[in-house]
C-alpha cells in the first residue's frame, strides 16, 4: 500500500463545511463581521478560543494533553495547538483522543512499508488505513462500528468508519458501540453528570469524557468492569494508576496487564473457566476477539454478537480482513513494554514521555528540582549536586525467572519467560550426570502454522481440495516431500544442499525429509539454517558442552540459542549480530522473540536493505550484482544475504566494498593449497573471517590491515572492547565511503571526515559536561580573580574563553583538559593546526562520539555493565552521549563508569564524614570536591588514595603545586606507571616476575598493550585468580568461605575486590574499642554463618511451595519489610511470618535495589506487593513510600534478616490494642549466637542509645517482663497505623538509615503515647546482614547529631549515660512507683501456705500500675514455665537471686525503689543487717512488713496441744516482742486479720493495716445429691507443720468414728503439695483415703466432693484454704480455732468442732454430709461471706490504701 501522489494530509486541511456545522452558534458573527469567510474567522478568532479546524484534530484535547504545547502557544511560539501539530507535533504527537500515533505506527509499520510517501501514521490512516479497517485505538473497532450503520456507502464515502464517526460526532451516537471495551449507553445513564457535560458541549460523547476527564479513577467504562473493586481488590495496582502515573486508571491496567495475570474485572466474574471453553478459544485464536473478557462482554448483546461474528468471518473469507489488520492483535505486548519504559524512564524526556503516557491514557509526571547545597562545616567549600527527585521512581518489576540448577529438566526454560540462562550455566560447577533431553522438547521442533501458511501461500487451497483437517497434517503428508520447511528456524532446501549425504539417505527412504533427519540425529552436529552455525555458537560459548546443555534441559546449541542466547543478544553467526540488526531495524521486535527469531519469522516483510552485521552490506551487494534482485523477485532467494550465503558459485561474489573475493583468493592462493582436506571453506571470505582477520591478511587492495591495526586509536578501541577486531574497526569507521576512489591516501586520523562532525554543532549544549561551572572553576583555579582584575575581565566565563583555555584549564569538573590531551595525542596536533581551540572544543564538536572526557569514565565500561541504557540513550534526544546519560541519570542510580570509581565505596566515605548529601550524585560530587575535601577519599576497592599519598609523599606535593588534581589522576598520568602501586595488596615487581607470560606486553610505551602490571591484573589477572602480592593467595581465598558465592551474587566483581574489602574492614575494626559490638567473636561469626546456612535450607521448599500472603477483604495487619540482597535469609523471615500469624497479612516488600537472586523473590510469593526501588532508597524513605499503601489498622515493621519465634506477632498485636495509650510494641531480639541483642532500648541524655542487656542470656529475669521503654528497634515492632500516619511515618532527616526508629519512638512519646517492650514476642536477628559496618558506623555518628538537635527538649530529661544508670533508665515510669517485693520463694499459687496471698498482692500491685520486682531469698528455683505462667507479665521476677546477693543488689539498684515490701517477719529478721548496711541505697521511709501470720500464738498453742516443755520466757507478751521487734524498722505492718492486728497493737505498733485474702465467688455446679466424699486441701512442707499434725490427729481420732457413723460408702481425698521429706505412708492404711499430692487445678475436687474438713489444731492468720473452699461452694467443717480466725458464725456460715471432742467432730461431719438442707444453707451463706469480704476490688482498695499511706509524702 503505497500512496501514489504526495498530497496535503487530510488532517492539515481546514474543513469549511464541518466547521460551520460544528460551531453553528457563531455563524451570525461570521456573516456579519467576517462577510461569511469562515476560514478568516478561524484564523483571527476561532483558533484562539480553542476551535478545531477539522474533525480529525481536537484542539482543546491536544492542549490539555500536551501542557508544554499549551505553554508554547501562550508564549506565542505557535498560533495554536493545530499550528504546533502541523509544524512539529505530527512526528510523534497524537492529534485526537481516539487515535494514538505511537500505537498505530507500532501496529502497522511493517504492513504498510513504513508509511512510505505519507507524512505520518495518521496521514496513512485517514487515506488508507481507515478504509482497510485498521484501528488507531483500542476503543474504536471499525468493523463493529460499521456493522451498526444503516448506509455502508456513506462510510466508504467518508473514508472509513473512523472518519464517518468523527463526521457525525456532534449528533447523538446513542446506543452505537464503538468498541466492546466501552459501553456508551450504560456510561451516560450511570453518570448523569456526563450527559449534562455533553449537552454543554464540554465533551462530544461518553467515550470522549471517559478518555479525557481529570478524575479517571471515579468512572467505570461498563457494567462489566468495576473500577473501585479492581483497585481495592488488587492493592498493588493503586500505586501505578491515576493522574501522573503510567496508567490512567485500573481499567487500563486490566486491559494491558490484569487480564493476562488472571485478575477479575468485577466481584462476581471469573475469567479462568471461561477462557478454557472451546468456543472462546476458537474465537480468540481466529483473532475475532482479543481475549475471553472481550468475548464475554460481546456475548451479553447476543444479536450484535452474532452479527459481528458473521461479518468478521465474511471479511476474513473474502480476505478483506487479516489478523494483522486487527486492532490490539499485538497491542497488549506493545503497550506493556511502553508502560515499563514510562516507569523506568520517568521524566527524563518529557516530550517522549508525554507521548507514551498519552498512548496509555495517562497524564504526564511532573518534575521536581532543588537548589544546590553548600556545606559550611568543611575546611573547603563543599559543592554538592542535590538529589534528582525525578529519578526516585520505582523500577518496574522484572519478569525474568531465574534459571536454577534444581529445576526439573522439562521446566528448565519457560518459553514465555526471559530467562537469563547463560549466567547460570557455570562451567566451573561440578557437572552432574543428566539425562539427554528428547529432541521433541526442542524449540526448533515445533510446527509453525501461521508462518507456514504465509510462506507457502498456495497450500490453503490444496488443503481445502484434499479435505485435510489441519495445516500440519498437510505438511507431514505432502509438504515435507516438496522441500517445505516446518518453521522459520529450519531451512529444508539449504539443509539438503549443504549436506548431500542426508539427501542420499532420503532417496534411500531412511528419512522422509531433511527436517526428520535433523530431529533424529542431525541436531547433534549439523547446522539447521544458513544463518546459524552450531560449531560457531559452541566455539563462542565454550561452556555449552553436551553435558552442561543436557543438565539444563537443552537439546543442542541451537535449542539453547533459540530459547536463551537469542534473547540475551548473543550471535549464532558472524552474519547476524542481534544488537547491530536492532540498530538498523526501524520496527519493534515481536514480544517474546529474540532478534534472530524475529528476523527469520518476518524475513519476507523486512527490507532487503536492512543490515544484519558489519560483515555484509546488502545495499552495496545489490548495486554490485543487479541480477541478484531479479533472482529475489522471482522467489529464488529471500534477500541479498540469503543469496550470498546459499548461491552455487560463492567465489564469484564479494560481500561488501571492503572485501574483494578474487583479490583475496589470488593473493593467498598458497594458503589455500596448504589447508587440510577437512578445512574446506566455502569461499575466501569464510577463510578471511575464520583465519585471515587474526593473521591481519589483506581483504582488498586498498586495505592494509596490518598497518591499520597498529594505529593508536585502533589498538585502544579494540583493547577497550569497542570493536572485536581491526577489520570491523575499519568497516565501522569507513561506513560513509561508498566508493574506493573516495578513500584518502593518508588515513591517519579516524575522525577527519567531515561527516563525523555533527551537522548541528550546538547539539551538545544540553549536556551536563558541556556547561561552564563558575563556582567550581574559581575554587579549582584560585588565582583567577586576581588575574581577571589584572586583565580587566569582568566575567569568569569570559576569562576562561579568552585566557583559561590556553592555560589548559578545564571548564568544569566533568572534563579533564590535561588528561584529554595526554590521552589523545592527535588532538594536540589538531589544536596546533588550528582545527580546534582546546581539547574541550574537540570533545564538544566530535570527540564526544568516540573519545572519553575523563580518566574516571569509560563509556564502554558504562554500557557494558548497563546494556539497557544503550537504547535509552539512542532513543532519546535528552542525552548527547553515554557520559551525559551517566551524569544526568546513571550517577544518581549509583551506576559506575570505571573500576576506579565505585559509588558504594564513595558513599562509605561520605557516611563516615557525615556528608550524606554528597551521595545523591556520588560521581559528580566526588569530581566537584576531589582536589579539596575529598583529596584522601577512597572511591574504589582497587585504589587506596590515603595509602597512596602516605606511601608517595611527593605526589601530595605535586597535587598542591597544581600539577595533578588527585592521587588517582597522578596514578593514571604519571610518566613511570610501573613505579607506583595502587594499594598495599598489589606489587608491580612481584606480579611481573611471577608471571613471565606478561613479558613484552607491559611497557611505558603508549603503543604497548598494558601500561603496567596492575592494568593487566584488573582486566585479566584478577579474573584468573593470579596472585597480586606475595602475601595474597587469591585462588585459595576465592575458594574459602562465601567468597565465591558473593562474587556470583554480584556483590563483588572478583576475588581481589572481595579481599580488599575484607582487609579494609579488618583494619577499621582493629581501631575500635574492645567492647564494640562490631567486633564479632568466633562464636558470633559461626552462628551467623549457621543462620545463613539454615536459611538456604528453606529455598527448595519455598521454590516448590510458594508462601501465600493473599487475603480477602481488609487485612488484619500490614507488614513492611525492606530487603537488599540475601534472598535465602529474606525467605526464611517471610516463612516464619507466614507460620507465625494465621490472620490476613498485607505484605509490603521494598527492594532497595538488590543485585542478587532477590530480584526473583516474587516467584516465591503469592499475594505480596513488591516495590523495587531504582537504587538504595534508604530505610525511612522506603518505609514511608510503603506506609502510604498500608490498609490494616496495625503496621508491623520487620527486618529481612530475622526469624520469628512462635506467637510473636500475635503477642505484639494483642498487647498493642490492649490499651488506648499504647502506640508501639517491640519484642525481645536475640542474636543467632544465643545472646540478647536488646530487650528494649535506652536513650541517654546525650542522645546516644544502648540495647538493654545486649550480650546477656535471653532468659535472665531482667529481660523477661513487660515495661515501657524509650524505644524499640523496628527489626520487629508493631505500631498503630493511625498514629503512624498521624506522625507522618519516619523523619526524612536521617536518610539513608539509622536513628529513624529512635526518632519515631521519641515522637510517639512526645505525642502522649507509650512504647512498650514485650519479652514474649521473640525474634532471632542476624543483625547487619545487608549493611556495611563502616557505613552504619558513619551514619550512626552523623544521624546522632541530627537526633540530638531535633529532640533537645526531650533529651534534657533523660538519664545521663553511665553504667550505674542502666537499670533506672531501662523503664519509663514518670508516674508509676517501683516496689521491691521480698519473699521466701517465688510466690507461686500451688505452694499454698500464704504464697497464694503473696501472689495476689503482686498481681494487684501490677494492676495498680506499680513496677514490681520479686526477690526470693531462699535457694529454691522453680521451673521457668511455672514462674511466668503464674505471675503478671509486667513483674520482674529475680528467680535466680538469693539472700547472698542481696547486699550487692541493694548497691546496684541504689535509689531505684520507692517501696520495699517484705513478706513474712522471719525474712525481715534475716535481711535486716543487710538493710542497715545498705541504708543509703534503699528507701528508709517506705518499708512495709507483711507478717502473713503472727506466729507466737500458734507456737504457744502447739506447745500446749502437744504437751511440749515451755521455758519461763515462753509467754505471749515476750514471744510477741521477740517476734515483732524487727518490725520497728518499718513504717507499716500488715496483718491478715483483726486478731493478728490486735496482737501487733498490743506490742506497741500503731501503723497496722489489715489485708486479708482475695477470692472470686465461683460456685461449682454439682448439687448435694451429685456429690460424694470428704476433702482435705493443704500443703505438707514438713512433718512438724500444722497441716501434717491436723491430718495425723484427724485420721487417728476422728476418722474411725466417721467411718462407723456413715451408712454409705465415701472417700477421703487429701490434696496439696507434699515435700519429699514427708512420709505419707501413715495415712495410707485406710482404704477410703486417696492421696493425690499437688493438683494444679482443684476445681474438679471442689465440684465432686460434698464436705471439706479443716481439722487444724494450731495456726495463725487466716486459713486461705477455707476461703478457697467456700468460694467454690463446698461447705466446711473446721476446728473452733479456724472458725474464730475467720470470724464466721457457727452453724450458719460454717460448722465448728472442738479438737477436744472427736465424737462431736465426727458427728458434725456426718450431719453436714447427710442433710441436704443444712448443706445448702452453709454453702450459700459461705458464698455470701466470700463475696463480701474477699472480693478483688476490696482487696485492691485496701492494698492501694496501704501503699498510698506509705508513699504519700513522696
Automatic annotation (TrEMBL):
Residues 413-441 are annotated as: Disordered. Coiled coil: none annotated. Residues 1118-1227 form the Glycosyltransferase 2-like domain. It holds the Pfam family Glyco_trans_1_4. It comes from the Bacteria. InterPro entries: Glyco_trans_2-like, Nucleotide-diphossugar_trans. This is Glycosyltransferase involved in cell wall bisynthesis (RfaB). The lineage of its organism: Bacteria, Pseudomonadati, Pseudomonadota, Alphaproteobacteria, Acetobacterales.
